[in-house]
Amino acid sequence: MLLPNILPGTPGVGKTIQGEELASRSGLKYFNVGDLAQEGQLYNGYNEEYDCPILDEERVVVELKNQIREGGTIVDYHGCDFFPERWFHVVFVLRTDNSVLYKRLETRGYGEKKLKEEIVHQLSSNKPEDLKDNINQILKWVKDHNT
Ligand code: DAT
């Protein structure tokens, strides 16, 4: 059996565009968890603060389990924490620089609050100078979020 794959990454990194092309070129099936949730209304509430429905993770897991039972699928979702690890054979994480991502999500109509909360901050840690830069960047974030 061909095990499923997953393409996680924060919103806007290109999971959909690349997942769909991969599916057509590889013969794997493509599943977009967001679309699946919308089709089956797999929600258990609404988050007024972020202006978006709350995913019913248990029902998503049940639904997806049925869909990917045969294996050979690409699953598109921005996280993978609530999927059982044994489902996946490999994990490919897509990454985009924060400034580029911010513009993409703005174009997509994300509100200011959601933009700030959704973005995963990536820091390079390859050389000694990076250590100081990273600490400064994190300290700046802490300061900005304490005012
Ligand atoms: P996701 O499914 O991860 O939320 P997407 O596939 O919908 O993201 O892509 C969001 C937008 O960004 C879409 O207009 C395509 C564009 N995009 C994605 N990856 C890109 C890349 N490497 N270079 C340029 N544009 C990209």
UniProtKB/TrEMBL annotation:
Pfam families: AAA_18. Keywords: ATP-binding, Kinase, Nucleotide-binding, Ribosome biogenesis, rRNA processing, Transferase. GO terms for molecular function: AMP kinase activity; ATP binding; ATP hydrolysis activity. GO terms for biological process: rRNA processing. InterPro entries: Adenyl_kinase_AK6, P-loop_NTPase. GO terms for cellular component: cytoplasm; nucleus. This is Coilin-interacting nuclear ATPase protein. It comes from Ictidomys tridecemlineatus (Thirteen-lined ground squirrel).
